[in-house]
Amino acid sequence: MRFLVRDRLLGFGDDYWIEDDHGNKVFLVDGKAMRLRDTFELKDTRGRVLIDIHQKMFALRDTMVIGRDGEPLATIRRKRLSLLRNHYRVSLADGTELDVSGKILDREFAVEYEGELLAVISRRRLHVRETYGVDVVREDADPALLIAVAVCVIHLAEKERGED
């Protein structure tokens, strides 16, 4: 499954659709303006909130939190003691971890679980400007969660670089 995500997703007050590779609207991104922290909701086509994304306010390192139904689902931060700057750890609420590595700022990276590929994020072969693709490789993977992970990692990498 491939989803097309607008590159500047994390803009205050931005609302727009994420489409599948056939141009069908799949998820609505609802950016919440006038908040102390970055807050976004990923909704389905009926308007139900699937994922809540926000920045953790009082953390030693920049951290993004993904939630579902009011409960934390995942915490994302740059991996400590990594020689690679573009290496992030996603700690899921069930105690498992996802590994995100690659060229984050170039939108060329992968999300893995215990060495198994879950999703590939890439701009290659896309003709739509300011857009990147999220290719969900495993059929049993949660597309909304993987899109949220990609968005958060890009946001953290840009913030670290000083682009945000």
Automatic annotation (TrEMBL):
User: What InterPro entries does UniProt report for this protein, alphabetically?
Assistant: LOR, LOR_sf, Tubby-like_C
As for family, the record states: Belongs to the LOR family.
What is the protein's given name? LURP-one-related family protein
Where does this protein come from, organism-wise?
Answer: Streptomyces mirabilis
Question: Taxonomic lineage per UniProt?
Answer: Bacteria, Bacillati, Actinomycetota, Actinomycetes, Kitasatosporales
